[in-house]
Amino acid sequence: MNTIINNLLDSKNYKESMQEVLRLFAQGNTSPLSVRDALKGYGIGVDDLHDESIDVILDYVNLILDDHIITKQEMDALRKLKMLLHIKEGDFIEAHKEKDIENILRREFELIYQDKNVDKDEAAMKVDLQELFGLSYDQFLLFEQEAVEYALKQGADVTNLDTFYRL
């Protein structure tokens, strides 16, 4: 987790207040109270960082998906970070980040569907991907549909794809 947060801090130009929150998080300090106290010095609250928080989560997701695997530790850390930053289900869509989500998911779906079969681990990965962005099942299906259609055109059997698809 520290490595990912440090990579974010090194590669992105976040506001000083967000950098402070990320440093606290990297140190293992995931207390909402400590974040609130740190942000007091900037005269803001965590909700004032909402738009930048969405971007931080997207950047974090991109980093953890570099290897196309979401470990339990990465998922747990992401849950804590989202909680700390007050990111909840629906926030990415409300922030109009559909294109960012689509780009990330398209990359992962290509790998999941390339063999025209979704195994147990890939099915679990899809659940994690849905959770990463706080998407409802229906929203997730919309993002997934293009990949499913492509797999079907390539000869996949829909029963092997772990999805709901209307013909």
Verbal overview:
By secondary structure, the chain is mainly alpha-helical. The chain has nine helices and no strands. It is elongated and about 60 Å long. The N and C termini lie far apart (42 Å). The model has no long low-confidence stretch (mean pLDDT 93).
Features:
single chain, 167 residues, mainly alpha, 9 helices, elongated
Short overview:
65% of the residues lie in helices and 0% in strands.
| Strand element count | 0
Q: List the total number of helices.
A: 9
Order of helices and strands: HHHHHHHHH
Q: Strand-residue fraction?
A: under 5%
Tell me the helix content. Answer: 55-70%
Q: What Rg, in angstroms, do the CA atoms define?
A: 17 Å
Class from secondary-structure proportions: mainly alpha
In the predicted model, the low-confidence regions spanning at least 5 consecutive residues are: none
Largest sheet: none
Q: How many domain modules?
A: 2
Using the alpha-carbon principal axes, give the shape: elongated
The rounded distance between the terminal residues' Cα atoms is 42 Å
Mean pLDDT: 93
Summarize the SSE layout with pairings.
Elements: H1 2-11, H2 16-26, H3 32-40, H4 50-64, H5 72-84, H6 91-94, H7 98-113, H8 120-132, H9 137-153
